Amino acid sequence: MEARTRTAVAPAATSRKGLAPNDVAKVPGGGAVVPVVIAVTAVVGGNRWHNHPPYGPEVLRVKSSLNFVSYVDAQAALGDGVGAPLASEGDQLVLARVSWQTPPEPLDRGWFSFFLIDKRTNLKPGNVSASAPRQLSVSVGGDGVDNKIAERYPWLRGAGDVRLRNGTWVSTGEQVAVFDETSSPVVFVAHFPRRDERDSESITASAPVALSDLLLALVYVGPDRQIYWAQRLQG
Questions:
Q1: pTM for the full predicted model
Q2: C-beta of residue 8 within 8 angstroms of C-beta of residue 36
Q3: Which of 67, 98, 110, 202 is the most exposed place for a label (fewest CB within 10 A)?
Q4: Average pLDDT of 222-229?
């Protein structure tokens, strides 16, 4: 869904040619002049309200954990119907579990984004599997708003696109989005493949990685892709 732009339309002027904001309307008979003022207070107030979060992160009382797991344990945590990423020798699987209390307001076409980022390289994992009580409310991938998140929060610069040495920007890596505020807990498994030393440039996070290298964050995105807030959960 593309973000919508709200445009304020000033009332039509009585003159056929129209009136600029600083023009005046002359009263017939040479009387006093009446300033024509375009009211913008309502528009500004509406924009502020539009970007105002319905609640803060403290309301959710989020709990989170990160653990290394085997493929068998990863599959058990995800449950039936969701396949865990396959791991070869030297690869690592990280299990993230995040739970929260149901907020007072519904997401209403907004969503919670969960980012797992290697702080050393500011890269996201390229293969993630996720599950939640309401599986249809969970999505794995990326969104254009991720770049805005990276611009707003320097500590989350790994949420956005990756710039290659040749100056090209590429969209890579995956995050988890939840579209139902009652779909807690969300569980996801990220695959960190062993890096091939022959690779001159990495665009996704790779092994070996320590849990202390990882950043887990929650971002609340509104229905028009406005960014309400971001919270560091781990790292």
A1: 0.79
A2: no
A3: 67
A4: 97
